[in-house]
């Protein structure tokens, strides 16, 4: 049996994934509104396929419980998918993780199965060396029942908007373990998936996740920097140049084109958090990586560069239309979204009339950023009708016809409107 702490994107996908494999799964979360939504068979965020999977398993082999003692007593595997937010200096905050571990060990000690072999698995993204230097010592210091507990990490590689297919059709499973028993238990848990499993050290497991995300972040910032170079030189069609770049056979069929393409900068939860956290962790160990440092700086400055270009074209007292508020299309996630930074910069530059629209993220954007004094439109057409200048900030497919919806300037911040034609 499996217990999953945290039922956000990663946690719910993990819980339902194991339920799909036939295991009995308990879900634990501190957010009462989220639990109520899930218990009603609904998903509290936009994620394809998940609602159907939830309704299939809810009340059968997946339950959302407030009884941590019962869940942990029954479970051999306890997964932690709680938030590990990053502070001003980029280091990961482990408060929620340690709180969940405390609740787990307390439940184990109060159960009649304290001598059962269990493995605590951190699926939340944590900087390299965290398991070995912080989590394992923390658990071992508890003594008693904790002596029967293994500690591991199991990084996730889920893309928002594709969580379910990325879990079910994963290309690899990484297990950061330092003991054979925990490794064998986890390999057995994942055996029905018939997906390659790689058992590595605690720190290697953590590092692989950061290696993946910081590479993606680097490619995004590289593409944005090249777009800025092209703008400075002039006479360069940026969209055409990048589309032709993608034809290079040395990419070997890898679908990395959405990352090696300019836009507004990376956002969401993982890339900003992981790049900052790895920079902080490396600096704490005595080495400050300059490429990574500049990747973060480039990303931080990108929304301001875009806002400057937009503001220069807005007539006195004019209205700016913003199309797209989520950090990427097919998602309602607005955490660290470039749209917020662009709107904030425009307001600071004196553009006080802003009207925005997003197909899925307007309600969440307004809730998360109530300090922004902007209007919201019913659709993209209303934005175009009300605006003197329009900026496409998120590349939703429905924005493809925006250049034809009026004669006002359109800032293609995502370079959607390529003129490249294939012969």
What is the CATH topology classification name of the largest domain? Rossmann fold
CATH superfamily of the largest domain: NAD(P)-binding Rossmann-like Domain
Helix-strand category:
alpha/beta
Low-confidence stretches: none
Give the % helix: 40-55%
Task: Compute the CA-based radius of gyration.
Answer: 23 Å
- Number of helical regions: 15
Q: What's the CATH class label of the largest domain? A: Alpha Beta
Helix-strand string: EHEHHEHEHEHEHEHEHHHHEHEHEHEE
- Please tell me the total number of domains: 2
Count of individual beta strands: 13
Write out the strand line-up for the largest beta sheet, numbering strands in chain order. 3-2-1-4-5-6-7-8
Tell me the major beta sheet: 8 strands, mixed
CATH architecture of the largest domain: 3-Layer(aba) Sandwich
Q: What is the end-to-end distance? A: 56 Å
Average pLDDT reading? 93
Global shape: globular
Report the sheet-strand fraction.
5-15%
Describe the fold and architecture.
By secondary structure, the chain is α/β, with parallel strands linked by helices. It folds into two domains: 2-200, NAD(P)-binding Rossmann-like Domain (Rossmann fold); 210-412, 3-Layer(aba) Sandwich (Rossmann fold), CATH 3.40.50.720. The chain is 43% helix and 13% strand. It is built from 15 helices and 13 strands. Strands 3-2-1-4-5-6-7-8 form an eight-stranded mixed beta sheet, sandwiched between helices. β5 (118-122), α6 (130-140) and β6 (149-153) form a beta-alpha-beta unit. α4 (68-74) crosses α5, α9 crosses α12 and α11 crosses α12. The longest helix has 32 residues, at 202-233. It is globular. The mean pLDDT is 93.
């Amino acid at each position: 049996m499996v217990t999953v702490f945290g039922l956000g994107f990663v946690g719910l996908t993990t819980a339902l994934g194991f339920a799909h494999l036939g295991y009995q799964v308990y879900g634990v979360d501190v957010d009462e509104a989220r639990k109520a939504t899930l218990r009603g068979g609904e998903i509290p965020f936009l994620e394809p396929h998940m609602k159907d999977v939830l309704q299939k398993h809810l009340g059968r082999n997946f339950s959302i419980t407030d009884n941590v003692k019962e869940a942990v007593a029954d479970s051999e595997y306890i997964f932690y998918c709680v938030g590990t937010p990053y502070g001003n200096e980029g280091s990961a905050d482990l408060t929620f993780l340690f709180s969940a571990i405390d609740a787990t060990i307390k439940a184990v000690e109060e159960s009649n199965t304290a001598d059962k072999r269990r493995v605590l698995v951190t699926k939340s993204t944590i900087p390299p060396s965290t398991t070995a230097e912080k989590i394992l010592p923390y658990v071992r210091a508890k003594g008693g029942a904790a002596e029967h507990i293994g500690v591991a990490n199991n990084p996730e590689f889920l893309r928002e908007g594709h969580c379910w297919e990325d879990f079910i059709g994963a290309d690899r499973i990484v297990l950061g373990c330092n003991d054979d028993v925990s490794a064998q238990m986890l390999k057995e848990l994942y055996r029905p998936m018939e997906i390659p499993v790689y058992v590595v050290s605690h720190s290697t497991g953590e590092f692989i996740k950061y290696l993946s995300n910081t590479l993606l972040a680097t490619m995004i910032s590289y593409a944005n920097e090249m777009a800025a170079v092209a703008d400075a030189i002039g006479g360069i069609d940026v969209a055409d140049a990048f589309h032709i770049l993608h034809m290079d056979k040395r990419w070997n069929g890898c679908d990395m084109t959405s990352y090696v393409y300019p836009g507004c900068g990376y956002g969401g939860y993982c890339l900003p958090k992981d790049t900052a956290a790895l920079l902080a962790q490396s600096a704490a160990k005595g080495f400050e990586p300059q490429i990574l440092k500049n990747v973060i700086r480039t990303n931080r400055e990108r929304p301001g560069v875009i806002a400057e270009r937009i503001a220069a074209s807005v007539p006195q007292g004019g209205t700016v239309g913003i199309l797209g508020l989520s950090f990427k299309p097919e998602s309602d996630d607005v955490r660290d979204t470039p749209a917020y930074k662009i709107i904030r910069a425009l307001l600071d530059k004196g553009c006080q009339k802003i009207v925005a629209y997003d197909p899925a993220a307007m309600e969440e954007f307004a809730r998360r950023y109530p300090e922004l004094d902007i209007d919201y439109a019913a659709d993209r057409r209303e934005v175009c009708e009300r605006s003197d200048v329009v900026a496409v900030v998120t590349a939703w497919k429905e924005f493809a016809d925006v250049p034809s919806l009026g004669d006002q300037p359109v800032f293609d911040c995502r370079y959607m409107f390529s003129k490249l034609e294939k012969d």
